[in-house]
């Protein structure tokens, strides 16, 4: 069972693992470990002072992997999922295993939607985001952006054409939505 001090059983025996994987269990014998004799080997002592750890209270519903029977004893509360991105995240955790690509692709899509939601939400404030200073676009000209990439055999050169699209897409979408809303409002009046 997860989160208990009990050691899970190995799917294969130690002899089977040692025969199948060269070098497996080289430090299994405490006498072979560099910390011996400082280490006190007690197979009955797990180090855990609990049978089951105290659980953090769940004040708002958190997403949970379907591989787990319940929510982890401790979890983050600083950025609870909200809006459309939160709905995508909750669907991903409720529907797909963490071993499925669909789970992670939905989480990536939720991150992109969250960026768009945050950009649109900033327009409702008195100090909206500034894409020129906050995305680092200006440093491309002032801090050798292009020359630091080209001719240096960098692995991330392949996605550089996509970077402006990823950075600018939420701003262009926000401007387009604002234009449509203002146009409809001015036509009605």
Tell me about this structure:
- There is one protein chain.
- Helix 2 (83-95) packs antiparallel against helix 3 and helix 3 (101-122) crosses helix 6 (163-188).
- The model has no long low-confidence stretch (mean pLDDT 84).
- It contains six helices and no strands.
- It has 189 residues and is an all-alpha fold.
Beta-strand content estimate: under 5%
Distance between the termini: 65 Å
The number of strands is: 0
- Enumerate how many helices there are, as a single number: 6
Characterize the biggest β-sheet.
Answer: none
Approximate shape: elongated
- The average pLDDT score comes to 84
* Low-pLDDT ranges: none
Structural class: mainly alpha
Please estimate the helix content: 40-55%
What is the element string, with H for helices and E for strands?
HHHHHH
Using only CA atoms, what is the Rg?
Answer: 26 Å
Keywords: Membrane, Transmembrane, Transmembrane helix
Transmembrane segments: 164-182
